Amino acid sequence: MSRSEHLATGRLRTRHEAVCAGAHALGRRMLAATAIVVLAAGCAGSAKSTPAPTSTPSPTATPTATATPGPSATPIPTSPPGQMTHGRSTHTATGLADGRVLVAGGYFNSAPITLTDLYDPGAGTFTATGPMATARGFDTATRLADGRVLFVGGNPKTWDFYGPFLASAELYDPKTGTFSPTGSLATARNLHTATLLVDGRVLIVGGNDMFNHSLTSAELYDSTTGTFSPTGSMTTARGFHTATLLADGRVLIAGGGSAGWTSDHFVASAEIYDPTAGTFATTGPLTAERALHTATLLADGRVLVTGGINNDNNGGTSLASAELYDPATGMFIAAGTMADARTLHGATLLADGRVLVTGGVHTGWDYAAPFLSSAELYDPMTGTFTATGPMADKRVSHTATVLADGRALIAGGYDGSSWGGGPPWPDVTTAELYDPLTGTFGPTGSGR
Predict the structure, then answer these.
(1) What is the pLDDT of residue 210?
(2) What single string gives the DSSP state of each residue in 246-260?
(3) Would you say 324 and 303 are in contact if contact means Cβ atoms under 8 Å apart?
(4) Residue 236 and residue 189: Cα distance in Å, rounded?
(5) How far apart are the first and last CA of the chain?
(6) Three-state DSSP string of 14-67
(7) 19: helix, coil or strand?
């Protein structure tokens, strides 16, 4: 209806209402009953002049029954700021394409769990998702090119040096929030590494088998077929090692243990995997034997190796030393010394090119030794470590993940509060954020 039509209709309605009101008033003054009936009936919109019958009272409405509430959906557990929905250590934390972080599996009170959390940086909270198809710790998690996350191998039992370990693998789909099985490894393994290659395949290397033997074998996962296939073998058996994708697409494998959990067989050897040839070749070696260390690709293409344990003292001594691998020369060189010796720590490349090193245990396998809340930064421009932080909690076997806004999410781990005497060992439920602009750690619910 046009504006003019609206206005015309309004004028007619107003005039009609005015006439009706006047008629009723005139009827009351003149007591002309017949005229009143006819005029009032016309104003009521009826064309008939017959007086309206006396109205019959409407029956009382039957009260409507109160609706019975239907079953409500099970609420999704959401943590308070600063905490995961469940404590865990030796877990994985994977940054997703949408900026959230998937925290999955690991151990709680020394038993593997299927529970998973999603961290939302915008809300600063963790929300339960999943669960995993299989409980697993000491496994690997790799974000694929299509955004899904591949989980491989691990230990399905309480802390144990021997198997059976897992050959199974599963995929997490962020679109559905669910896990589903995928192909299986040819060899069950834990304490292995998994590296996303440039072509989208995932390289699975080494680890330990169910007889506490370190492995030389390696496999490739193809996400288009959902299957694993063998590739070349390493020159040295190893677990507790690191694997780092280099800028040229090759993978650097460094250090580790050559005899399962045995503490005096850590190695300084290193090798390079060539995905084009499908073979391993020696490089390096490291300046010191080490295992349970970290290896971080720097912006300039070199690799920073920090801490870990060596073969000293029949149980390993944590290392404060660091070294750099240069792919151009194939050599490692010393790279300064950390303020704290540490193993089972975290190391994360920040957006500004520095490396954040967090937590760990101060004295090798001796878990009664100090657990660390300290943190430090490595600056590749100066080749030095400087103190930062510290964290609010002591942490060992935690995770450290850089967020899209440049902060780092530190989650879970052990805090050493009741270590000793064997498992079960309680795990940390807390998480915190490191802000490189202020050099401080704060709760996950806090913003900048």
Answers:
(1) 83
(2) -TTS-EEEE--BSST
(3) yes
(4) 16
(5) 54
(6) HHHHHHHHHHHHHHHHHCCHHHHHHHHHHHCCCCCCCCCCCCCCCCCCCCCCCC
(7) helix
Residue 162 pLDDT: 67
* In the block, residue with structure tokens 């989650």: 411
The residue assigned the tokens 């005139």 is 26
Please give the biggest Cα pair distance in the chain: 121
* 314 DSSP assignment: G
Residues of the chain where predicted confidence (pLDDT) is lower than 70 = 1-81, 159-162, 260-264, 313-316, 364-369, 418-426, 446-448
pLDDT of residue 29: 35
Question: What residues contact 428, with CB distance under 8 A and at least 6 apart?
Answer: 87, 89, 393, 395, 398, 412, 413, 414, 415
pLDDT at 160: 63
- Annotate 396-447 with DSSP letters as a single string: BS-EEEE-TTS-EEEE--B--TT--SSS------BEEEEETTTTEEEETT--
Q: Decide if 375 contacts 441 (C-beta within 8 A).
A: yes
Quote the pTM value: 0.81
Amino acid (1-letter code) at residue 56: T
What's the pLDDT tens digit per position in 229-254?
A: 999 999 999 999 999 999 999 999 99
